[in-house]
Specification:
Layout: E1 3-5, E2 12-14, E3 16-19, H1 28-31, H2 38-51, E4 55-57, H3 66-74, E5 83-88, H4 103-117, E6 122-127, H5 136-148, E7 152-158, H6 162-175, E8 180-186, H7 198-205, E9 208-212, H8 236-239, H9 248-265, H10 269-278, E10 283-288, H11 293-300, H12 309-319, H13 327-330
Length: 341
């Protein structure tokens, strides 16, 4: 397993990390992802550790805290072999302060996550989304306090706009507070908007990318092809409305190109899709999910080899879209605005 430096930090994370959203299955939405209980979760964690995976990602809202509880049981006795990433910001409770990135909610959420996970510290703590109702300096000061107290080691964000992240970095620099070393982002062959502004920002500011849903919200599993219905077992049956919209013909065009590369490499569709993301700038780790051992071992096999330049170019061409303004305009002047990819 390859280990990569996480942004502007000294922390090394495995190129593939495990997403524990499949643990627990505490409500209908997350049951569509998976519902691994403690015993199966422990088995999947052991497979990951044996393969060299050292980062396990979860969030307080995954199955209303149950995913954190299951992960905590699964890693019992193995804490010194792995890193834990978890998050807060989204609503987890009915009270007026059970949501957001306020000092109150962050500190409460950290303590609750530590209890559910059964650990003494969190290695990477994310703001799961941007909270426009809380002053950014309040959020960052609270996170810095928790870093200094030893409750969390590094801070990160997720699903931020470019200006959200840049303003946060500037405030951290102004006061000498802990800065976001990573940005957890949606990025895949069927969703490349990350490249327009967030990737160049990450390159410039040395913010590492932790990629969620690299298979395009379950669309690049190899089970969705032109002229075929959705497979009987697919999260898209229940969660498609929550994920990124993807034009059907655009998806088929990309899958056709992946199929061509699959014949050349002997790899599967998801392995090629994951490997493509692994080769992109700023990507520190790609978060893979798995309902079971078979899926996990398939995903683990996406690392340790590289697509050729020609194969990457074929996938790039099939998935290319015209960016929105001002990015299409900037791309007309690559002499002064060189593309990051």
């Amino acid at each position: 397993m390859e280990y990569r430096q996480l942004g502007h930090s000294g922390l090394k994370v495995s190129a593939l990390s495990f997403g524990a959203a499949t643990f627990g299955g505490g409500n209908e939405f997350f049951r569509a992802w998976g519902s691994s209980a403690a015993d199966e979760a422990a088995h999947l964690v052991d497979i990951c550790l044996d393969a060299g995976v050292n980062l396990f990602d979860v969030a307080d809202i995954y199955s209303n805290g149950l995913a954190e509880e299951v992960l905590g049981k699964a890693i019992a006795g193995k804490r010194n072999r792995l890193l834990i990433s978890t998050k807060c910001t989204f609503r987890i409770g009915e009270g007026p302060n059970d949501v957001g990135s306020s000092r109150f909610h962050i500190i409460t959420s950290v303590h609750n996550s530590l209890k559910r996970l059964g650990v003494e510290h969190i290695d990477i703590y994310h703001m799961h989304g941007f909270d426009a109702t809380t002053p950014i300096d309040e959020t960052l000061e609270a996170l810095d306090t928790l870093v200094r107290a030893g409750k969390i080691r590094y801070i990160a964000c997720s699903n931020f706009s470019g200006w959200h992240l840049m303003k946060s970095l500037a405030i951290s620099e102004r006061y000498g507070w802990a800065r976001y070393v990573a940005h957890q982002v949606y990025y895949s062959l069927v969703g490349r908007e990350f490249e327009w502004e967030l990737m160049p920002l990450g390159i410039d500011q040395k913010v590492g990318s932790l990629v969620w849903s690299p298979l395009g919200w379950g669309r690049l599993t190899g089970k969705i092809r032109r002229g075929q219905p959705l497979p009987e077992v697919s999260r898209l049956h229940k969660t498609a409305d929550y994920g990124p919209p993807v034009d059907t013909e655009y998806l088929y065009k990309i899958v056709d190109a992946i199929d061509e590369v699959a014949k050349e490499t002997g790899k599967t569709v998801p392995q090629i899709a994951l490997n493509w993301v692994l080769q992109r700038p700023t990507v520190a780790s790609v978060i893979m999910g798995a309902r079971n051992e078979e899926q996990l071992r398939q995903n683990l096999a996406s690392e340790g080899w590289n697509l050729t330049r020609e194969q990457v170019a074929k996938l790039d061409a099939a998935s290319a879209v015209t960016p929105i303004y001002p990015y299409w305009h900037q791309r007309q002047f690559v002499e002064r605005n060189p593309l990051p990819v």
